């Protein structure tokens, strides 16, 4: 591994917790170059909802490449893009009665967020954006301005302005009615709060510690935004594409945000792709006003289209995700009860689950113990205090049982 340490920047992170060289991957497993198998409960930080090298998606991709399908096309019209747009409308938008136009903002989640912020300010003529405590929206400057983590914000090196944080759901542990603080500031001409262009929120905060907003809280936020003429941006980069059960994390709340950000698993195969969905009346862009070289990576269109056809033609994946999520919740409940002195907290929704420890040191130690037993998972939260699970949605019941057994052993090894 010396070549990585000699040439790769010190900014690398995941490789420090998993110090092996990986060579192959299939389904829910990664294999090191010496052949050891690791059960993957991280799934590319949510970019591999359908697993590694999914055979359905791989065949579609190989067929496309072998026929010399267009790989790079900027925002030109291609067969691959047309197939994706038609399939996305048929499988996702139409069944949910959602009316969005699609911006292809670039290859990653931060691109989707930057486009959303830029458009909200253009539409409204206002500068300020409301974000939430413990939010994470990306590493570029605009996305960092609405991100909560002080370490990530500090790396910007310049003031991050035109954004104001508000308390996320349960931030005050029920000591304050929902949105009382936010709405009071909006209505008080002496509060000093600039009238916002938009509010940006995650249905479940992934990097922030697997904080799952109550559905009624999301509905209340939507109502508040409508009353005050504020655009609602829903960042579903990590929690979209079925991670919480439904395709979108906000579906069960019965809302339709003004702007939705998607990336990670929208490409299906782990290929770079991002979408910014916008209500038609917000489509005020001038041609080329928001631009980028990698807005149309056709192989990602191909695998995205196949993923929608295979997994979103019915509700089987949604049902499976919710059921497996409940199995994790049950195991976490048992762990909480088994170690009362540790004050563990089980968190999450669907197959985005977390177990909160008293410190980042403990959570990290559990993840290290799990790695030694052949399971990959990471930490999240402001101090890394949450053990985070983001397994592929396609993992088998047997793989889930195997992973939960390793987690139980690892928690015991650290806490006992």
TrEMBL record:
Pathway: Amine and polyamine biosynthesis; ectoine biosynthesis; L-ectoine from L-aspartate 4-semialdehyde: step 1/3. SUPFAM superfamilies: PLP-dependent transferases. Pfam families: Aminotran_3 (PF00202). CDD domains: OAT_like. It comes from the Bacteria. One of its GO terms (molecular function) is pyridoxal phosphate binding. Its EC number is 2.6.1.76. The keyword Transferase applies. Keywords: Aminotransferase, Antibiotic biosynthesis, Pyridoxal phosphate, Transferase. One of its GO terms (biological process) is ectoine biosynthetic process. Its cofactor is pyridoxal 5'-phosphate. It is an enzyme of class 2 (transferase). InterPro entries: Aminotrans_3, Aminotrans_3_PPA_site, Dat, Ectoine_EctB, PyrdxlP-dep_Trfase, PyrdxlP-dep_Trfase_major, PyrdxlP-dep_Trfase_small. The keyword S-adenosyl-L-methionine does not apply. NCBIfam families: dat, ectoine_ectB, PRK09264.1. Belongs to the class-III pyridoxal-phosphate-dependent aminotransferase family. This is Diaminobutyrate--2-oxoglutarate transaminase. It comes from Amycolatopsis dendrobii.
């Amino acid at each position: 591994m010396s070549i990585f340490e000699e040439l790769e920047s010190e900014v690398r992170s995941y490789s420090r917790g998993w110090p092996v060289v990986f060579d192959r991957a299939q389904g829910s497993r990664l294999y090191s170059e010496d052949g050891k198998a690791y059960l993957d409960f991280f799934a590319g930080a949510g970019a591999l909802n359908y697993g590694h090298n999914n055979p359905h998606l791989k065949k579609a991709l190989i067929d496309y490449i072998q026929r010399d399908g267009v790989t790079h096309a900027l925002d030109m019209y291609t067969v691959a893009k047309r197939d994706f747009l038609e399939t996305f409308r048929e499988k996702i938008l139409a069944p949910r009665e959602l009316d969005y136009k699609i911006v292809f903002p670039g290859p990653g989640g931060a691109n989707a967020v930057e486009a959303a912020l830029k458009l909200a300010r253009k539409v409204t003529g206002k500068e300020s954006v409301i974000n939430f405590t413990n939010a994470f929206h990306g590493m570029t400057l605009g996305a960092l301005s609405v991100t909560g983590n002080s370490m990530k914000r500090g790396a910007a090196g310049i003031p991050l302005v035109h954004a104001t944080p508000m308390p996320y759901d349960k931030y005050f542990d029920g000591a304050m009615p929902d949105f009382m603080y936010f709405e009071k500031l909006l209505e008080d001409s002496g509060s000093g709060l600039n009238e916002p262009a938009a509010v940006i929120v995650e249905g479940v905060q992934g990097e922030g510690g697997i904080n799952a907003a109550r559905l009624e809280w999301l509905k209340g936020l939507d109502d508040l935004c409508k009353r005050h003429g504020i655009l609602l941006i829903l960042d579903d980069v990590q929690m979209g594409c079925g991670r919480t059960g439904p395709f979108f994390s906000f579906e069960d709340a019965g809302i339709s945000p003004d702007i939705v950000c998607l990336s990670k698993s929208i490409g299906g195969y782990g290929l770079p792709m991002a979408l910014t969905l916008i209500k038609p009346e917000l489509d005020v862009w001038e041609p080329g006003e928001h631009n980028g070289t990698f807005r149309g990576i056709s192989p990602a269109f191909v695998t995205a289209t196949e993923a929608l056809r295979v997994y979103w033609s019915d509700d089987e994946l949604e049902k499976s995700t919710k059921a497996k999520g409940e199995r994790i919740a049950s195991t976490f409940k048992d762990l909480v009860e088994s170690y009362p002195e540790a004050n563990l907290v089980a968190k999450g929704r669907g197959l985005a689950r977390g177990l909160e420890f008293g410190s980042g040191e403990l959570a990290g130690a559990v993840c290290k113990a799990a790695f030694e037993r052949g399971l990959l998972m990471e930490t999240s939260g402001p101090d890394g205090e949450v053990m985070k699970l983001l397994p592929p949605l396609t993992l088998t019941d047997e793989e889930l049982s195997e992973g939960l057994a390793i987690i139980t052993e690892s928690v015991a090894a650290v806490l006992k």
